[in-house]
Amino acid sequence: MQPSFEALQLSPALITVVHDLGYTQPTPIQIEAIPALLAGRDVIGQSQTGSGKTAAFALPILQRIDVDRRELQALVLCPTRELTAQVGREMRKLGRGHHGLQVIELVGGQPSRPQRDALERGAQIAIGTPGRLLDHLERGVMKPDSIKMLVLDEADRMLDMGFGDDVGEIIRFLPHGRQTALFSATFPSAIEAMSKEVLPEALRITIETPDEDLANIRQLKLCFGDDDKLLALCWALQSQPHGSALVFCNQKATVREITEELSRGGISVDRFDGDLEQFDRDQVLARFRNHSVRVLIATDVAGRGLDVEGLDLVINYDLPEQAEVYLHRIGRTGRAGANGVAISMVQHESDWDIEAIEKFTGHEIEILDHSASKCLSLDDLLKQLAEGPKMETILISGGRKDKVRKGDILGALTGDAGGLSGKDIGKIEIQDKISYVAVSQHVISDAVSCLNAGRIKGKRFRATHVGR
Ligand code: ADP
Ligand code: MG
Question: What domains are there in the chain, each with its CATH number?
């Protein structure tokens, strides 16, 4: 029988939270890693993306820190700002029963001052990218002496991005007796070497990826031959009714081009690539998560670790150059037991690059029958794809630090105060200093003016409609 969360020596408070979040059973990596980390062991954990590695270290951290002590006790290193934010969200979700818990995110591209202030106020958990963390350590802003736990998350990606030296430098600042955990989806030799050096005594956990793990992702290829590729993309989108779709291209220029074309066709679409400023990246992802953007066109910047609920379709507009990247891309769908579809667009069914992927995954990819879509013109296809209810996103200039909660925003928009109906309000996401709320397109201007006229928690905040 699968062990339950109860069997993992988690505190009753944390067990309640995971059940409230709808996690009925721990995932294999959680089953192995949680008891070991709670027992104080160093752990090296390898399992595929989407297998719940975040909670595997977040839960033990939450259990092992002392919230009454206002000092830094756990440090989590992540490769990118987006992954930092994602780990931060999961950590706060799981830690919501811990009163007095302060989780801070320390990433580059943002002013240092507020981060320093937050450190001084005594956050217990810091999550961040290596460059900025090192900077805080070197300036003496971050006091490492009280750190008991260090996590290197997505370690393979961190090394790929050239953070190896920074990670080494950070480790030199930390107390010797600390506990260390390293999580990675893959185990190239560079990770092997790093593990030997940093956690020589660690318990090594490897969760093999059984073939069935991709079983809830239906893999298809669309062979477009001599037809127009953009038209073929529309066939792919139309062939699979989807809540949200993520389309991967290899070049930023292609990303822009397709985004413009689809947008002109009235489709709810936006782009995500390395050219966007950090703030815009955050905004696009927030809008994708709350379904204001239904189709996101992206480069591989979005290929690893991103977790969007309800993402049921991934399309490879261009095939990735490495077969392994294919797995990371399609792994954005079919997360946590949900079903997903991955369509790869190829000119011919036996193109060598798709065959290389089939060989690598040991899985023959089915051919998508798109004859039905083929009868439609591009205009008709775009019209069909543009149909359906649309959401828009409002950015509110207040967040967690201003004590803004979801219920406050909901309350301001509905009832006597706002007059909107609950069904027009979508996902509400509270961040540190800002919040996002999704509302139906037809009430967007009412919602914006209502938020600007009213108060939340007795305070006035600025609300702006954000979009392309
Ligand atoms: P990884 O880091 O291994 O790629 P994540 O930690 O991002 O995976 O988890 C993927 C998704 O699974 C997240 O949405 C997370 O909330 C969810 N999840 C984690 N643990 C469980 C569980 N035990 N049951 C159900 N969902 C879970
Ligand atoms: Mg992860």
Answer: 5-206 (3.40.50.300), 211-385 (3.40.50.300), 391-466 (3.30.70.330)
